[in-house]
Known about the structure:
Layout: E1 3-5, H1 16-25, E2 34-40, E3 46-52, H2 54-63, E4 67-70, E5 75-78, E6 87-94, E7 101-107, H3 135-145
Parallel strand pairs: 2-7
Antiparallel strand pairs: 1-6, 2-3, 4-5, 6-7
The structure holds phosphoribosyl ATP, magnesium ion and zinc ion.
Amino acid sequence: MTTASTSSTASTPPSGDDVAALVESLSFTADGLVPAIAQQHDTGEVLMLAWVDAESLRLTLETGWATYWSRSRAELWRKGATSGHLQRVLSVAADCDRDTLLLQVDQTGPACHTGTASCFTGRVVAEPADPRSDRSAADENRGETT
Ligand SMILES: N=c1c2ncn([C@@H]3O[C@H](COP(=O)(O)OP(=O)(O)OP(=O)(O)O)[C@@H](O)[C@H]3O)c2ncn1[C@@H]1O[C@H](COP(=O)(O)O)[C@@H](O)[C@H]1O
Ligand SMILES: [Mg+2]
Ligand SMILES: [Zn+2]
């Protein structure tokens, strides 16, 4: 099982065996966590990165609401439980080496607790050099390909 999805038409949540198989297939950190990126399903906007453990992943799949593990509070955390800014989860994908998850969600309100649309909105912290203006790198690259 590489993905799990729920939708408004889905009537049966994934079975305990399905969830167990998914958990078994994932690569967790030593703390038992997997990073989970939440992405707005229709716009592609990257909303936030949080962490799931086996239990929060199970709750996410069984309820359809994004549920994470808060590292600082050390508790299960249904995103939006207090703010109302819930995330309906449409699908869960694992990356190629199964150590990162991508949650396609439908976000209610702002994803970030500061009120910004995503946790990254307006937070560019660096702008690298334009590679097209770097002659020496361009010359090196040409040399490597001939
Ligand atoms: N609401 C959020 C929230 N929304 C998005 N994120 C992102 O999710 C990441 C969670 O990763 P971590 O495990 O490092 O979070 P944390 O620092 O342990 O979590 P907190 O103790 O800060 O809740 C954060 O770094 C943010 O980028 C949030 N991180 C924390 N919260 C807190 O969650 C609480 C409940 O908020 P709602 O879920 O919106 O009701 C509030 O106290 C918020 O401050
Ligand atoms: Mg944090
Ligand atoms: Zn944030």
